[in-house]
Design goal:
It is a single chain. By secondary structure, the protein is α+β, with helices and mostly antiparallel strands. It has a domain of 83 residues: Metal Transport, Frataxin, Chain A, CATH 3.30.920. The protein is built from four helices and six strands, in the order E-E-H-E-H-H-E-E-E-H. The strands form two sheets. It has a three-stranded antiparallel sheet. The chain has a three-stranded antiparallel sheet with strand order 4-5-6, with helices on one face. Helix 2 runs antiparallel to helix 3 and helix 3 packs across helix 4.
Length: 162
């Protein structure tokens, strides 16, 4: 199993290595590194707009002011869109990431478990988006409860402004 961690912001623009200032907007991205794993990188707004980077997923954020409280900056629609975008991925890391996103969306009552089936020893959950007839299939990876907790905490940290 791929061991992955999406880190919090470094506070630096990946493209220029310039320190991002408090209050400055930046773009956080998930991109594939050389090993095919997801990696977070942050880019200043100026660098992002000038370079039109090809990334797996991105969101705009802002470096908080020193006395500012943390707050969630990825809304439920973005979480659901990210879950959907990962639907055709075969990379184990991305399957794990999608599963944890699904657990978060289920807890928020956005995704609903319908039933499951097994195919070639892999458990597949049939999911439905709440309030719609839209369905999706979700591979349930073999993760220990401790691993699920660690991955969930990692995603929660990413979903908070740093």
């Amino acid at each position: 199993m791929a061991d992955w961690e999406i880190k919090k912001t470094t506070g630096f623009c990946y493209g220029t290595q310039r320190e991002l200032e408090p209050g400055e907007e930046y773009f956080a991205v998930l991109t594939e590194n050389e090993d095919g794993n997801l990696e977070r990188r942050d880019f200043s707004r100026k660098y992002w707009m000038e370079n039109q980077l090809q990334v797996f997923y991105f969101w705009k954020s802002r470096i908080p002011l020193p006395d500012e409280n943390k707050k969630t900056f990825i809304d439920d629609e973005m979480l659901l869109a990210f879950y959907e975008r990962l639907s055709d991925e075969e990379n184990e890391e991305k399957i794990n990431f999608r599963y944890i996103l699904a657990l978060i969306l289920m807890r928020k009552r956005i995704l609903k478990y319908q039933n499951s089936q097994s195919s070639d020893g892999v458990e597949i959950w049939n999911m439905r988006t709440a309030g719609t007839n839209k369905t999706s299939k979700l591979i349930k990876p073999e993760l220990s409860p401790e691993r699920i907790d660690a991955l969930t905490e990692n995603i929660r940290e990413v979903l908070l402004e740093d």
